[in-house]
Design brief:
The structure holds two protein chains of two kinds.
Chain A lengths: L2 E5 L2 E5 L4 E8 L6 E6 L6 E6 L5 E4 L2 E5 L3 E6 L8 E8 L7 E3 L3 E6 L1
Parallel strand pairs in A: 2-11
Antiparallel strand pairs in A: 1-3, 3-8, 4-5, 4-9, 6-7, 7-8, 9-10, 9-11
Chain B lengths: L4 E3 L2 E4 L5 E6 L6 E7 L6 E7 L2 E5 L7 E4 L6 E5 L8 E8 L9 E2 L3 E5 L1
Parallel strand pairs in B: 2-11
Antiparallel strand pairs in B: 1-3, 3-8, 4-5, 4-9, 5-6, 7-8, 9-10, 9-11
Classes of the chains: A mainly beta, B mainly beta.
Chain lengths: ~110, ~120
């Protein structure tokens, strides 16, 4: 079964404490992996797209990496404004339009 | 253009009533998607439009749900005979037409509560 699993469910860090969020996937033939950020009461905001193992993308304090089985979202020296739920999704193998979503990791950065 | 907009932002209805939500995508975007999201879960795909054509619909979508996109601009999602299990956030997203899968831009969502 095609699925996306994110861990941990929630992560509390002190401001400046670096860490990583995990997204593991089981799909036949990865066509694209997407990271989104979602603030409470808002729609997801696009962050990164990764297509092949070894690929990396960076934006401010965030860096996304991809292997053949999982993706990591590394957050370096986080600030309280980085607090949000981070969602991972992969393109469904039998669709050009559907995404298979993980349940997200809720990140809380304490000042 | 300020992004994808949705109306209303919140809707409270009684079980058995019909509700309709509206989505206005980013003006240049040909692709439009509807999702449903419950607390602690990722978005669940409902349906997809390319211009005015509804090209894909989730197999999980009940017959009580219908969506339209007349003239390929705004879209509406109607839920008939609402049930308490329909309570969720309904998200709309849009993306430009292009080769391959293009990242989607989401609206703020409509939160539906069925009492």
């Amino acid at each position: 079964e095609d699925q996306v699993t994110q861990s941990p469910e929630a992560l509390r860090l002190q401001e400046g404490e670096s860490s990583s969020l995990n997204c593991s996937y089981t799909v036949s033939g990865l066509r694209g992996l997407f990271w989104y950020r979602q603030d409470p009461g808002k729609g997801p905001e696009f962050l990164f797209t990764l297509y092949s193992a070894g690929e990396e993308k960076e934006k401010e304090r965030l860096k996304a990496t991809l292997t053949k089985k999982e993706s990591f979202l590394h957050i370096t020296a986080p600030k309280p404004e980085d607090s949000a739920t981070y969602l991972c999704a992969v393109q469904a193998p039998d669709s050009n339009y559907q995404l298979i979503w993980g349940a997200g990791t809720k990140l809380i950065i304490k000042p | 253009d300020t992004g994808v907009s949705q109306d209303p932002r919140h809707k409270i209805t009684k079980r058995g009533q019909n509700v309709t939500f509206r989505c206005d995508p980013i003006s240049e975007h040909n692709r439009l998607y509807w999702y449903r999201q419950t607390l602690g879960q990722g978005p669940e795909f409902l349906t997809y439009f390319q211009n005015e054509a509804q090209l894909e619909k989730s197999r999980l979508l009940s017959d009580r749900f219908s969506a339209e996109r007349p003239k390929g601009s705004f879209s509406t999602l109607e839920i008939q005979r609402t049930e308490q299990g329909d309570s969720a956030m309904y998200l709309c997203a849009s993306s430009p037409l292009g080769r391959g899968f293009i990242e989607q831009y989401f609206g703020p969502g409509t939160r539906l509560t069925v009492t």
